[in-house]
Amino acid sequence: MAELVKTKGYPLEEHFVTTSDGYVLGTYRIPHGREGASPGPTPRRPVLLQHGLLDSSATWVLNDPDQSLALILADAGWDVWLGNSRGNAYSRNHTGLGPDTAAFWDFSFDDMAAADLPALTAHVQGVTGCATLAYVGHSQGTTVALAALSTQGALRAALRPVVLLAPAVSLRHIQSIPMLTLARLQADQFFAMLGVFEFMPSREATAALFEELCQATPTACVSVLTAVCGFSDRNVNASRLSHYVTYAPSGTSTRNVAHWAQAVRAAQAAPRGTLALTMYDWGGSCVSPLGRPQTCNRRVYGREQPPTYDLARLEGVPLAVVWGGEDKLADPLDVRRLLYVLPQASLKLAVGVPTFEHLDFVWGNMGDTAKDRVYPLVLRMLLEWAE
């Protein structure tokens, strides 16, 4: 992270946040902007930025200072905090488990909502002395926030406002070929059969492979990104892809990916017009084919089906939703369903950017740039609703 932030003239602090279940999250703070930047709000109010699936805190600072949201916010006078979800390149430590053990990877975004976000929030509160902080999430970062806010009243009081960029919640109309394939394969059973627990880890060899691919054959690199999440060089400079893929993918657990595959299946099986964000489905059988006890929904939840996160409980939390008209992961039809489900009194801003795809919100640096179409909306929301 230092090579992405300090080299551009910004201060950077590294923090380590331990969750209630022992994961140590690498967390970064940009306490202020460059010398001569806007003084902004006084005192500096904290804002937490949370990345998406297979991404990391680096995603917010990969572009030039005037095109990277974290640096724009720092220059505008905000105390910027960058979170990292358990299991990615910056959060591979635990108080009692190593990343070479299966137990370390036994998590999904349920655990990020239940333990990661509360720990990050409490840490920012403790360091800054501020009772509230603003929150900006992208993709899975929006899902984690909505799940956490629906279950924890303390977070509803602490995170104000909450900005959701490319919210991946309802996945009925998802067009990601890999995710649709994993959904059809019953990803949880598929990964268990293979004995694989870590998904697309961030390794030097992996990063070098992606970087070489994108440098040597940019069209192949674009094809991979297009299949995964939709991509074109309309808003993202394809010549910089080798730089981006040095930091992404950043790894997660196979169970987390399986949870996303479950979400796709559940959304496609649900009645039209409904939205149900559910916890991880452990299955109905509490006995394995070999007759041994195994984890099941009844053992974990005390019921046959996994609970659903009640998004109506976000009443009173100032929310902003910004989505892309060309997004293949957070499809506009699915976002509209989310807008219908969220408490209308809480929804302070809802804007679609017709030309935007999923990665344009963090990497967009040409055409309809994020700095012109999205980041002014983020700043406006923060200035109007931060407490």
Radius of gyration: 20 Å
**What is the percentage of strand-forming residues?**
5-15%
CATH arch. level architecture:
3-Layer(aba) Sandwich
The level 1 CATH classification is: Alpha Beta
Query: Total helix count?
Result: 16
**Which structural class fits the helix and strand makeup?**
alpha/beta
Main sheet: strands, sense, barrel: 9 strands, mixed
Q: CATH superfamily assignment?
A: Alpha/Beta hydrolase fold, catalytic domain
Protein name: Lipase
Organism: Auxenochlorella protothecoides (Green microalga)
Active site: 139, 327, 358
GO molecular function: hydrolase activity, acting on ester bonds
Summarize the structure in words.
It is a single chain. With 387 residues, the chain is an alpha/beta fold. The chain has a single domain (2-385), classed as Alpha/Beta hydrolase fold, catalytic domain (Rossmann fold). Helices cover 37% and strands 14% of the residues. The chain has 16 helices and 11 strands. Strands 1, 2, 3, 4, 5, 6, 7, 10 and 11 form a 9-stranded mixed sheet that branches. The chain has a two-stranded antiparallel ribbon with strand order 8-9. β3 (46-50), α2 (69-75) and β4 (79-82) form a beta-alpha-beta unit. α3 (109-128) crosses α4 and α6 packs across α11 (254-269). It is globular, with a radius of gyration of 20 Å. The two termini are 29 Å apart.
